[in-house]
Amino acid sequence: MNGKTLLVEIGTEELPPKMLYSLAQLFCKNMMIELNISQLMYQQVLWFASPRRLALKIINLYPYQINRVLEIRGPKLIESFDAKGYITETAKSWLHNNKVLISELETLYTIKGACLIYRKTIKGKKVNLLLPVIIEKALKKIDLPKLMRWGESNIKFIRPIHTITILFGDKLIPCSLLGIKSKKIIYGHRFMGNSKITLINADQYPDILAEKGKVIADYIKRKEIIKTGIEFMAEKLKGQVYINDKLLHEVTSLVEWPVILNANFKKEFLNIPHELLIHIIENIQKYFTIYDTKGKLLSKFILISNIESNDRNIVIGNEKVLNSRLEDAEFFFNHDRKHFLADNVVLLEKVVFHKELGSLKDKTERIMLLSKWIAIKISANVEYSLRASLLSKCDLLTRVVFEYPEMQGIMGMHFALCNGEHKDVAFAISEQYRPSFSKDEIPSSVIGCTLSIADKIDTLVGMFGIQQPPKGSKDPLALRRAAFGVLRIIIDKKLPLNLQDLIQESVTIYQDKFVVNNIVNNILDFMFRRLQNFYVESGYDINIFKAVLSVRPLYPLDFDLRMQALSNFLFLKESNELIVINKRVSNCLIKSNTRLASNLINSSLLKQKEEIELTDYIAKLTVRLQPYFTKGLYIEALIELSKLRLTIENFFNKVKINTHDNNVHINRLTLLSKIRSLFLQIADISLLKSK
After folding, report:
1. Do 425 and 357 share a structural domain?
2. How far is CA 534 from the centre of its chain?
3. Residue 270 lies in a domain
4. Which of 11, 49, 361, 472 is most solvent-facing, going by the fewest CB within 10 Å?
5. Domain shared by 584 and 478, yes or no
6. Does 653 map to a domain?
7. Are residues 355 and 306 in the same domain?
8. DSSP letters along 426-476, please?
């Protein structure tokens, strides 16, 4: 393909670092979609991103659009001409509407008969005429909730745009996008290299930017330079680093020319709780912590500068800033630990949890009651669960958590230990907010699980009770995440909790605060939707989920056992036979449309050998299956149920269900109903697809 390289660079003010990677990916994706829609041929699209630019390089882009053949089908041939061969009014109308001459028509022969067709070759346009519209569409489809306006125009983008460069080969595509005229000039680093660089052709990018402008535009390359440099620096300092990928991405998005430096903070600050120390170093200052070979935190850190300099003041300045922050944190920590957490319980009355659900003290009292109920159910230590619940929100009133809200729970644990609380109580306080996101760890201790579930269920029930469930993308109290967290904890820790009983207990604790009906069922439906997402994302077939959901198991652990059993059973040869049997039984019952008054089989109405054999088999099978159902051995139960195949086939082949004797008819339907009831003790297998 005889194409050229296209370069598109959007020069902006500093882009949000936490979004830069996804912005660049989105721009690239949008551009590829638009190129394909416009039927432009190209070899590859490369993307680049730095704090002040988004760029794309399209390799081997063909200079012309692909020629297209336009086809418009007309009426059938027999409807287009009369018996004398004259054109009909139907055909004339079609010709007029499509502005087509009769001489331009062809005949298309299909299996449905011959018809008129108009074919026209549309010559592809020059790519330089199409590109401005394509690029603008790709940019405008970067749809984010917060866009900016600048100057006096109404144009919006993530950040104000300063330059736009569109080069096709060595030719500038002259145009104006988002109010900015395209130029051959791109800008280098703010403080190093050439400020302005004039491009000769698109192939120079991004090498010329690195050579003359001191900007590494390749995001992946820049990230790897930082990662390798950090590891080398840590080794040089006889230490090691555990690189947080989220932090690495953010730092990559903050610098254009990374320079790896090392510095120190005062050793006395190692006495601050390490979680708080690491939070300040990594999440606030965007530095990398260093550990010795035994995993012990050192008073050293690595920083990534955006400028080359021999000036020691860069390191000194960063050390000064970090030491100042750590000094504040140390002061807050020392101040807070002089007081008992329990003293804050009464002060929680002054902090509003929700205007309709009371204060944090009200929430604490509800959590205590629900934690006690959960602890008894899952055999957790009731005394420790109650104590952890009482102290769970007390650290929210400390100076440290006020300054660093992300430390809630963690600091509660440290203050509890300082106050002489039992380590199990303290550890549970630190785990109460887990899991806080989809891939987060769940609480490791049973008391932590108790507290986390109680806290999340209380919030869910409260918000549903005052008719404020999540709507669309709005979920201010993260109820979806809370529901998902409760389900994960129960399933992963194999806790014997009934969702309906759990929710009902929380509703009871709220007493008369709600006037809404069906709170329990509404929350159950909400949680089952979260459970569906969980299983589908885990790779389970949606039909398996629907089959299990149809029998509505209220124990998440039991739900999971059924999901696993059905998923594994489908790999066995017996599965297809069982699905076919179930569908046949289910269809017979649905088609009969007969309401069965009883599930008892009248043995005196059993006339034929096959129905007698089936009745006896079901009676024995019911007894045999009961231990499997009790122990949750569902795959073993499914294998037993599949052995019904021959007996049921004999029944269907020899026994007529729709007899003239209504009593016999109902008796035989009751027999099928008992078979279906056995299946439904696991799932509605009729919803599964047979092979």
Report:
1. yes
2. 9
3. yes
4. 472
5. no
6. yes
7. no
8. HHHHHHTT---STTSPPPSSHHHHHHHHHHHHHHHHHHHHTT---BTTB-T
Mean pLDDT within 495-521 = 91
Comparison of pLDDT for 559 and 143, the residue scoring more: 559
Please tell me the distance from the alpha carbon of residue 314 to that of residue 95, in angstroms, as a whole number. Answer: 77
Q: Is residue 424 part of a domain?
A: yes
- Count of alpha carbons within 13 angstroms of residue 591, beta-carbon side: 9
Q: What is the DSSP letter of 126?
A: B
DSSP summary character for residue 588: H
The 3-class SS string of 619-663 reads: HHHHHHHHHHHHHCCHHHHHHHHHCCHHHHHHHHHHCCCCCCCHH
Instruction: Give pLDDT, residue 120.
Output: 81
Which tokens sit at 335?
């101040």
DSSP-based three-state secondary structure for 489: helix
Crossing angle between the packed helical segments 499-510 and 519-537, to the nearest 10 degrees: 140
Residue 618 burial (10 A CB sphere; 0-12, 13-18, 19+):
buried
Q: Reduced to 3 states, what is the DSSP secondary structure of residue 340?
A: coil
Q: Return left, alpha or beta for 39; rule: phi > 0 is left, psi -120 to 50 is alpha, else beta.
A: left
- CA dist 647 and 484 (Å) reads 43
Report yes or no: 371 and 385 within 8 Å, Cβ to Cβ.
Answer: yes
Average pLDDT, the chain: 91
Peptide bond preceding 16 in cis form (omega within 30 of 0):
no
**Maximum alpha-carbon separation in the chain:** 108
Entry field: residues in the chain: 691
Query: Rounded to 5, what percent of the chain is helix, strand, coil?
Result: 55, 15, 30
Stated as kind and residue range, the H or E segment containing 264 is strand 259-264
Rounded to an integer, the average pLDDT of 144-166 is: 84
What's the whole-model pTM score? 0.83
Whether 105 is in a domain gets the answer: yes
For 323-372, the pLDDT digits (tens) are 999 999 999 999 999 999 999 999 999 999 999 999 999 999 999 999 99
d(CA 78, CA 311): 90
Cβ-contact 105, 117 below 8 angstroms:
yes
Q: Please count the structural domains in the chain.
A: 5
The residues, ordered by sequence, that sit 6+ positions from 23 with a Cβ below 8 Å of its Cβ are 15, 49, 54, 142, 158
Query: What is d(CA 23, CA 21) in angstroms, rounded to the nearest whole number?
Result: 5
Its domain, for residue 615, covers 564-687
| Predicted confidence (pLDDT) per residue in 542-578, tens digit | 999 999 999 999 999 999 999 999 998 888 877 887 7
Closest residue by Cα to residue 588 from 638, 652, 650, 640: 652
